[in-house]
Structure formats: structure tokens, C-alpha cells
Amino acid sequence: MSATNSLGDVRRVLKNLSLHTVCEEAHCPNRNLCYSNGQATFLIMGNVCTRNCRFCAIANGKVTSLDADEPRRVADAAQKMNLKYVVVTSVTRDDIPDGGAAHFAETIRQIREKLPDAGIEVLTPDFLGNRDAIETVLSERPDVFNHNVETVPRLYPLARPQANYQRSLMILNYASKHSNSIIKSGFMVGLGETDDEIFSLLRDLKNTGVDVVTIGQYLQPSPEHLPVERFVHPKNFEKYAEFGESVLNFKRVFAGPLVRSSFMASDIWEKTK
After folding, report:
1. Which of 58, 69, 168, 210 is the most buried (most CB within 10 A)?
2. CATH: 3.20.20.70, 3.30.830.10, 3.10.450.350, 3.90.550.10. Which one for 7-186+256-272?
3. What is the spatial distance between Cα 207 and Cα 92, in angstroms, rounded to a whole number?
4. How far apart, in whole angstroms, are the C-alpha atoms of residue 201 and residue 148?
5. Among residues 153, 19, 37, which one has the least CA distance to residue 89?
């Protein structure tokens, strides 16, 4: 458990250190539960994204320059919260030559200096497919390397037109072949995909070298975002997990309506490391 064990404690640490979380910026439905358990997923490189994915609540538009002190403050927050497992994600910064990979790497280094025994998970953007950028992150040996495919390939032009499905698979495959990290990916359901497309996506992830998959229900953040096409029955989530674990032999498929990429991430890591 963490030293900060209330929602208010976590909020104060984040506010005092001027840090963002994906929990807040992406309107995660689990944020109060996680905060109450002394947990949060840090969002680095600001809270404004250079992309405009139609499912995501994070703001997009004019970005600011990187805050060179942010990695230290993330590590300070993790230490104050006495985290045993630290999850770091970011907005996408296509304006930076390396996509912010060096910023990720420095954040990992700072956390390791303050919390040498903590597990570290990074959830990265695609870095526009820049292998050197991916290597920069992997060279710091995160315990878990996570990159989300988000949805089935057919829906990319609708949901995330600035991304590329094959590019995301390449990143996951590169990480699988060039690191000892657990490789993780996640996606949403409810955007209009079929079960056959979900099973095909899971096969692609397995063939790419992914170890752990998260699957959750898409929830519309605002009227300006894509509508929910269907609410998936909990038994269907059980079916996806059963297929992934029993048929495809993933180490873990964590599937459910409120599952998000970082939800219960430390538990998943403990069961798969």
C-alpha cells in the first residue's frame, strides 16, 4: 500500500508538484477509486496533445515546450505516494523530433533513483514509428512497455486518423524483440467493431509478441466525441479473455467494462513478471 491513502492526499501531491494525470485528463471512470487507493497514472509532456483522436478526452491544440524539471517532480510524487509500481504515460508530441522519448527515459531514470525497488510501466505514443526513439525508452529497461492499439484497424480512419495500425504493431514487435520488458497493449470495444474483428486483433497482438492485453468499454467523453455504438455485455468480455488466454496463450487478458490500460496495472505486473 502507499503512504497516501486518500483521494485528497493524492490530489494534494499532484497539485503541489504541478503534475497531470491521465486519470483526470482522459476522464477515467476509475480515477476516484485509484486515487483513494493512493494510485495515479502520471501524464507527462503537458496535458495538450498534438493529435485529435475522436475517442479521447485529452485536449488537443497548441502545445508548450517540455518542462525539463517534470521527470524529477514525477519521481518526487511517486516517492511521496510511496508507490511500489509507477505508471507513466504521455500526450502525443509530434512536434518534438524524438516524440519525447528522451523525456520518458529521464523520467524512468529519476524514478529509479528515488524508488530503486519500484516497478515501472510506460505507456508510450507511437513516436511516428521512430525506432531510435523506441530504443531510447527501452534502454532504460522499463518493467512493462505498453503501447495501445486502441481499436480494430478498420476504425482507425474514424477514431484515430493520425495513427497507423501497422505502425503500432511494429512498435510492439520491436519492443518484444529488443527488450526484456513485459509487452502490453490495450484497446476499446463499443466503437462499431465486430467480435470477429476483435479476435483478429488479438491474433495480431499475439503474433507481434505482446504478453498482456487490456480490453475495456468505450465511453463517450462528450457530445463532440464519437458515440457509443454498443455496450458490450460482461459475458462477451469474459469470452474475449478466454479466447486470448486459453486459445492464444497470452500471459494475461484483462477484460471488462471499466478496464482501462493502467487500471490494476500493478496487480497484472505481479501476476505476469
Report:
1. 210
2. 3.20.20.70
3. 26
4. 12
5. 19
What is the length of the chain?
273
User: d(Cα 3, Cα 175) in Å, to the nearest integer?
Assistant: 33
Q: What is the 3-state secondary structure (H, E, C) of 95-115?
A: CCCCCCHHHHHHHHHHHHHHC
Q: Is 42 helix (H, G, I), strand (E, B) or coil?
A: strand
List, in order, residues 6 or more apart from 221 with CB less than 8 Å away.
26, 27, 55, 56, 57
Phi, psi of 256 (to 5 degrees): 175, 160
Give the integer Cα–Cα distance in Å for 243 and 246. Answer: 6
Q: What is the pLDDT along the chain (273 residues), one digit of tens a residue?
A: 344 456 667 778 878 887 878 666 555 565 555 555 556 789 999 888 899 888 887 788 888 899 999 999 999 999 998 889 999 999 999 999 999 999 999 999 999 999 999 999 999 999 999 999 999 999 999 999 999 999 999 999 999 999 999 999 999 999 999 999 999 999 999 999 999 999 999 999 999 999 999 999 999 988 999 999 999 999 999 999 999 999 999 999 999 998 888 777 777 777 776
Q: The cell 481499436 sits on which residue? A: 151
Give the Cα separation of 71 and 84 in Å (integer).
Answer: 17
Residue type, 235: K
Distance CA 30, CA 228 (A): 19
CA 57 to chain centre: 14
Strands 182-189 and 85-90: unpaired
DSSP secondary structure code for residue 150 in this structure:
B
C-alpha cell at 261: 490500460
